[in-house]
């Protein structure tokens, strides 16, 4: 848990002004809820998915995010990957909230912060383990990114008068099924795509190694991105591994394919990726 908290604090430092309203207990409580056995690995569809969605909506409301749609929900259908047989189609959701900017012109431009909230349920073809019928907790993947999203939303709401552009916060569904939530969003965007200036995605930000590496994909998609991220990281005591040409493989890719500048933040792979052992203690 200590490693998870350290890296989340580091990621927050990149994107916000100060730390005082971000607490260890809030980060811990978000992760604990998301990885709990009762949520059964957060696979799309079913009562467990609805429970997680309800929690995220409550948190969006709590920090004062505005909604484009009823109850922040953007509904879509997801075809689930299975070990064998026909893919079942289930109903799931993206959750979208926003803070409106204050500049009369720039408030019509958008920065998106995103993180996927789903995981692998009780196993399946995307698993890196042959275990089935056990909970794939997904603490790093991606309870870490969701807890970061919620805490950053709280922080930026506190500083909303300082924002010129508007900021969207999106908790994506069905990323593990093939980036389905982000693909649906860019095809049914709640704001004009040409007004989205940057999409920042947090997927697996819970493991900071001894060298304090934070991996940054997509830095070449916006002007001066590589040097900016390297300099910013060093000023925070981090060692960014900045990829100018590589975009990566999470929800920000859906935006990149629409010619939108992106940044994918993560802290690297590990042996517990897509196994039941991706737990909160690590």
CATH class: Alpha Beta
- CATH architecture classification: 3-Layer(aba) Sandwich
Q: Order of strands side by side in the largest beta sheet? A: 1-2-4-3-5-8-6-7
How much is the radius of gyration in Å? 18 Å
From the spread of the alpha carbons, the general shape counts as globular
Query: Which fold name fills CATH's third level, the topology?
Result: Aminopeptidase
Write down how many β-strands occur, each being a DSSP E stretch of 2 or more residues.
8
Give the name of the CATH superfamily. Answer: Zn peptidases
Average pLDDT reading? 92
**How does the major sheet shape up?**
8 strands, mixed
Count of spatially separate domains? 1
Structural class of the helices, strands and pairings?
alpha/beta
Strand percentage, roughly? 15-25%
Runs with pLDDT <50, length 5+? 1-20
N-to-C SSE string, H for helix and E for strand:
HHHEEEHEHEEHEHE
